[in-house]
Design brief:
In chain A, 38% of the residues are buried. Chain A has three helices and six strands. Helices cover 24% and strands 32% of the residues of chain A. In chain A, strands 1, 2, 3, 4, 5 and 6 form a six-stranded antiparallel sheet that branches. In chain A, a hairpin with a 4-residue loop joins strand 5 and strand 6. The longest helix of chain A has 18 residues. Chain A starts with 8 loop residues before the first strand and ends in a 22-residue tail after the last helix. At the A-B interface, helix 1, strand 2, strand 5 and helix 3 of A face helix 1, strand 2, strand 5 and helix 3 of B.
C-alpha cells in the first residue's frame, strides 16, 4: 500500500467497481479506504501481519461514526490523515479525514478499535511494545484541537419532523 | 436482490472477497450490505432506478453511526431489518439491524439520508408521492421503542485514558 513519508498520511485511488448508481464512490468504500489507512497506521505502530501470525494480536472495530461531506469520483486519488484521540490498555479512539485531489474534505470517520487475540477472539491489553508506540504517538497528537465532527449525534430536530 | 415478504426485511450472503485478514467480514462490507438493505427499503417507497432515470431523484447518505457486535463469516446469510426513526421533507433518519443465522445481532447502523437531484447534485424535498409513502411508513414505526444504540457517542472515559 502506498504510504506517504508522513506517519499518518495514506493515499488510494477510487476503483471503478466502487462507484454506485449515483455515479460516485459508494458509502461502503469510503469505509474500506479508511480501513486501509487505519491498517497503515497500525503497521507503523507494529501491528502488522507478522505480529498477527506469531502472536494472534490484532484489532477489531467496535464502533464508527462517519460524515460524508463531498462526493468522490472514479479514478480520483484521495488522501487520508489519521490521528489518535484517546487510548487505554486495550482500546484506540481514532479520527481520520479523507481529502479529495482539489483539497476539499470528502469524509471523516471516528473509530473505536479493540485489541483482540485472534486465537481466543477475546478483547485484552495490547502487547507492551505496541502500547509504548501508541503512547508515543498519543503525545504527538495531544495538543491538536478536537475535530468538530467528534461525537456528533445524528438527528432531525422534532420541529421539522413532519411533512 | 432478495427481499422477504416483510417490507423491511432483507437478506444477503457474505462473499469470500468481503473477508479480511482477521478471517471475518471486513467493516466496509457490513456497510455495503446495509446499503443494499437501504436500497430495498427505498425501492419499496418508490425511490427506484426508474425514478432516478426519469426525474434524477435519488438519495445521498450524509452521516452514519455503526456498531459492530458480532463477527460474521464467509458464506453466512445475514438478515437486515430497517426502520424509520424520523423524517422531514428532505431527510430520512433510519436505523437498521443485521442479524446472523444463529439469531445474534451482528451490527447496527444509524443513517442520515438526504434527498438529492442527480442533475444538480443539490439537496431538496422528496417528490410528493414519495413523501406520502414515507409518512405512511413512519406511522407504522411510531410506537416502537427507540434502539439503545441510537445517538451513542464514541469515547474512552478519561479515567482509563492512560497506559
Amino acid at each position: 500500500m502506498p504510504i506517504d513519508e508522513n506517519l499518518t498520511d495514506f493515499s488510494e485511488t477510487v476503483r471503478p467497481e466502487w462507484v454506485d448508481y449515483n455515479g460516485h464512490m459508494n458509502v461502503a468504500f469510503y469505509v474500506l479506504i479508511f480501513d486501509h489507512a487505519t491498517d497503515a497506521f497500525l503497521e507503523q505502530i507494529g501491528m502488522d501481519q507478522n505480529l498477527r501470525d506469531t502472536t494472534g494480536s490484532s484489532v477489531f472495530v467496535a464502533e464508527s461514526h462517519i460524515t460524508y461531506t463531498n462526493e468522490v469520483m472514479e479514478g480520483e486519488r484521495v488522501r487520508v490523515t489519521s490521528r489518535l484521540i484517546a487510548h487505554d490498555q486495550k482500546r484506540l479512539h481514532m479520527f481520520l479525514e479523507m481529502f479529495r485531489e482539489d483539497g476539499l474534505l470528502a469524509a471523516t470517520i471516528e473509530l473505536m478499535i479493540l485489541h483482540v487475540n485472534l486465537k481466543t477472539r477475546k478483547v485484552g491489553p495490547f502487547p507492551d511494545d505496541i502500547l509504548h508506540n501508541v503512547s508515543n504517538h498519543a503525545d504527538q497528537d495531544a495538543d491538536k484541537p478536537l475535530p468538530s465532527q467528534l461525537g456528533h449525534v445524528i438527528s432531525i430536530p422534532s420541529s421539522s419532523n413532519k411533512t
